[in-house]
Amino acid sequence: MEITLDKHSANQASVKIKLIEADYQPKVDSKLKDYAKKANIRGFRPGKAPVSMVKRMYGTTLLVDEINNILSTSLNDYLKNQTFRILGDPLPVIEDADKIDWNTQKEFEFQYKIGFVENVEVKLDNNIDATLYSIDMDEKEVENTINNLRSQYGKMINPEISEENDFLYGDLKSADGSFEKTFSLPLSKVDSKSLKKFIGLKKGDTVEFEIKKAIKEDAATVIGVTEEELDKLSGKVTFTVQNINRTELANLNQEFFDKLFGEGQVDSEESLKNKVREIMAENYNKELKVFSDEKIKDQLVAKTNLVLPEEFLKEWLLKANDGKVTAEQVEKEYPIYAKQLSWTIISNEIAKNNEIQAEHEDVIEKTKEMIREQFASSGLSTQLEASMDMFVDNYLKGNEGQNYMQMLTSVQNDKVLAFVKEKAKVKEEKISVDKFQDLLAN
User: Fold this and answer.
1) SS3 49
2) Distance separating alpha carbons of residues 425 and 427, to the nearest angstrom
3) Helices 269-304 and 402-423: angle between axes, nearest 10 degrees
4) In sequence order, what are the beta bridge partners of 429?
5) Is the pLDDT of residue 300 over 60?
6) CA distances from 290 to 126, 278, 285, 287, 296 (A)
7) Cβ(90)–Cβ(75) under 8 Å?
8) First and final C-alpha spacing in the chain
């Protein structure tokens, strides 16, 4: 057997494997004999058919199987001994394989495309900026959240006169009568300049307006029509009120508190505010941590400047997904994939060079945290902890073990990022919710 590597560029190459008869024939002959001993061929007693007959019937299949086994093992062993890091999986050159004559050929040559990176150098120093954000909760945000919760747990009433934030159920008609639709109009979607037309209405009242002026965002969705249908509704339309729906806010009492957080967890309006503020701050701070970590990853990816085998990876992604994605989809999603792959390579390199390792106990603890978060609002904390080991075990065994590997990778990433922050130039900053939204937008 002869294996050669031909580098086409700094990150793409081809591997050629040449086989002669001595590489595969002894094993093929051995398998033919074993097959003949078990074969049930018409006209012969089981296991008594001549080997020559078995060879004519099954020889090519056994030959192909054996050569595929040799290729797979040899290629994997060869690539494991290389200094570079293989990306994706080797891609066989189909054009070469299609030219093979399995019945007459004694020597074979196979070619595989590979993509790789080598000489990955990650510099960790105080040139990396890490801003650790925390949220400064605005009392208005807390009040709005409590009002939203009261609305969710409130009851529906049908008042006589419409007010801001009501829902008006009624008939929408075009001026020429070519369009008519009955639907529920949320006044929260009506532009502030047009809103006064819809306040103070009673059942049977009719209001005239222009849709695109009155509803400036997602007008088609609000009304329940297509964009094409909406374009045809130019000019003024009328809306006749059939009914007014309003959500009456839930009372701030113990029943409401218990519904939100479980029995006895909150016992006053003040403790409700504190609880909501605490949960909101915790949630925002988790998002801010993710945001900060992504910015650190971006810097490391930019500074390391990995050159990925783009052409190879796109071809591999297309073939690996086996018809589930198109070339256009791969092209569109590739920048995201390339960024994630670059970070994975960098993270693994940092972990290897600094002996950072995710332990089994870390995986267990992270999984417990995830499960607690999922059940945080259920009020089942006592029952949950009693069955936690079972929940953890079931989750980590799920998805054919992939859940465990994903959690293992997540733990390693956490440890790598913590290590990077120790080396980086770190500053802390407390920001408002509005500032956080601005950061996300940019």
Assistant:
1) coil
2) 7
3) 80
4) 133
5) yes
6) 20, 19, 9, 5, 10
7) yes
8) 56
Strands 12-19 and 85-92 come out as unpaired
Close Cβ partners of 412 (under 8 Å, ≥ 6 residues apart): 347, 348, 351, 356, 357, 358
Instruction: Work out the mean pLDDT of the chain and round it to a whole number.
Output: 91
165-191 residues labelled b (16+ CB within 10 A) or e (exposed): ebbbbbebbbeeeeeebebebebebbe
- What are the tokens at 109? 């040559």
Name the token pair of 387.
């069955």
**pLDDT tens digits, 218-247:** 999 999 999 989 988 888 999 999 999 999
User: Which contiguous run of DSSP H or E holds residue 3?
Assistant: strand 2-7
Could you give the CA distance from residue 257 to residue 214 in angstroms, rounded to a whole number? 38
In 3D space, the residue among 93, 94, 88 whose CA is nearest the CA of residue 111 turns out to be 93
Please, is 414 exposed, middle or buried when counting C-beta atoms within 10 Å of its C-beta (0-12, 13-18, 19+)?
middle
**Residue found under tokens 């799920």:** 398
**pLDDT on residue 52:** 79
| Selection from 248, 262, 250 nearest residue 150 by Cα | 250
- Of the chain, the percentage scoring pLDDT greater than 70 comes to 97
Q: Which amino acid, 301?
A: V
Partners of residue 87 on adjacent β-strands: 115
**What length is written for the chain?**
442
Closest CA to 205 of 245, 160, 250, 247: 160
Helix and strand numbers, DSSP H then E, in the chain: 16, 11
* CB-based contact 429:131 (threshold 8 Å): yes
- 36 pLDDT above the threshold of 60: yes
